[in-house]
Amino acid sequence: MASQIKRAFPRKSHKTPILFNDFASDDYMRSKTYNFSKGGMYFRSNVILKPDLHIRIVMINYTPGSYGPEAYKGYMAKIRWCRESSDSIDEEKFGVGVQFLEKSHTEFGKEASTASYMCDLCGDITTLEFIHRTDELDYLCGDCHKHLESFPEGRIKESIKRFMAGNVF
Q1: d(CA 17, CA 12)
Q2: Is residue 165 part of a domain?
Q3: Residue 165 contacts by C-beta under 8 Å, 6 or more apart in sequence?
Q4: Going residue by residue through the chain (169 aa), what tens digit of pLDDT does each one get?
């Protein structure tokens, strides 16, 4: 009996172009995502990437307020795994799984004081100093964070968290 892979967030099939690099270079490599979740994404690379390497990802089709990885301009991510794929697509012969560490409406590596973040609940855009990051990888402005924390543990608070995670039943 094969063991089941347990994931923190469900995956969604999604193909979109990206640029990525490690922090040692200003040169970006082109790729395409094949699926994503709230916590990470899968893409192909023509070079092997070592696990635990931190990379920057830039979404070419950045569309604020959309659903999918294009909702943010940039991600900071950690390589979780990189494997040679038997079904090589073009020259991209390595499949890469990454875990998101940060997400932003600006590219990482740019001036940090100008980085902007969108509240995942109300949509307001603010700077990092006013954003609260939850354990579920959501970003909340100060007002939404304070309001959410004011709810006692229970059905209402859980419903709001499921809504933010996109798991509305």
Answers
A1: 16
A2: no
A3: 9, 38, 136, 138
A4: 455 566 667 788 889 999 999 877 778 889 999 999 888 999 999 889 999 999 999 998 888 878 888 888 899 999 999 998 877 556 678 999 999 998 888 777 655 445 667 787 777 777 777 788 877 767 888 888 888 888 888 888 888 877 776 644 4
Q: Look at residues 116, 146, 152 and name the one whose alpha carbon lies nearest to residue 134.
A: 146
Domain assignment of residue 60, given as a range:
12-110
* CATH number (domain holding residue 70): 2.40.10.220
The whole-angstrom separation of Cα 9 and Cα 52 is 20
Establish if 54 belongs to a structural domain.
yes
Instruction: Calculate the dihedral angle through the C-alpha atoms of 74, 55, 68, 130, rounding to the nearest 10 degrees.
Output: -50
Q: Is residue 70 part of a domain?
A: yes
- CA atoms of 12 and 124, how far apart (whole Å): 26
Give CA–CA dist 136/165, Å, rounded: 8
Cα gap 24→128, rounded to integer Å: 24
- pTM listed for this prediction: 0.66
Q: Which amino acid is at 100?
A: F
